[in-house]
Design goal:
With 275 residues, this protein is of the alpha/beta class. It has one domain: Glycerol-3-phosphate (1)-acyltransferase (3-Layer(aba) Sandwich), CATH 3.40.1130. The protein contains 10 helices and 9 strands. Strands 1-9-8-2-5-3-4 form a 7-stranded mixed β-sheet, with helices on both faces. Strands 6-7 form a two-stranded antiparallel ribbon. Helix 3 packs across helix 4 and helix 7 packs across helix 10. The chain is globular. The protein starts with 9 loop residues before the first helix and ends with a helix.
Amino acid sequence: METKPLRIDVDSVIRQRLPRHYRYIPKWLIRWIERTIHQDGLNKILQDMGDKKGVEAADIALRDLNVKYQAVGEDNIPNEGRFIFASNHPLGGLDGMALISLIGHRYGGDNIKFIVNDLLMAVKPLDNVFLPINKHGRQSRQSAQDIEEQYQSDRQMITFPAGLCSRKLKGGKIGDLEWKKFVITHAVSSQRDIIPVYFDGQNSKKFYRMARLRERLGIKLNIEMVMLPGEMFKSNGSTYKVHFGKPVKWQDLNAKDARNEASRLRDMVYELKQS
């Protein structure tokens, strides 16, 4: 039986989620949301993906967006072993698909898992690669157990320890927010070495200005995230460098001081920018 391709329909989603208020929502606002998230462009990519999954789906998205990546320091990646690939998160979408493609082709598409916001499980072509974590509420016991099982498996784990994509920091530099300590605690508990990854890229100045304005207004909801699909399409024709560092031995990590160790790992990743 042929699988019906996933399709994004903002109008339908709003109608279903807000049935009592739908009639009062201006049509121009719905059209604006559709244009902002590039609904037609996203649906074209989803249509091209068809029934492809994981690495194949990521390859199709990169092809449609005319985006390429160039691995630097790939000889630092061992052919055998169990690793956590810990990367900065500059773009909010393309960086994830590029890592799925790059690492998936090296180890096999069935041998990778990517820790993501559980909301991304709606992206069905990639749900076989994604490993969801609840960032907006309590983690369920089953979800926590699934994550632990994957870390104990032989699959390669990919993660953005910052969670959110990069923002403009104090001093004007673009970079990740604080890296969460789980990258250290999971490395030690699962006895996995960590491979630092620096993804060389940035979003537009408009994205960072919107994020800063939202913070100044005291709005906690990351409303700038609605701009990320547009940022993805702006990358058309780009080639991104992906730098890999030497593995960090799990035995050298201090799980009792995981927060500082995560900060040290973050610094190591940004040092790869010079390589």
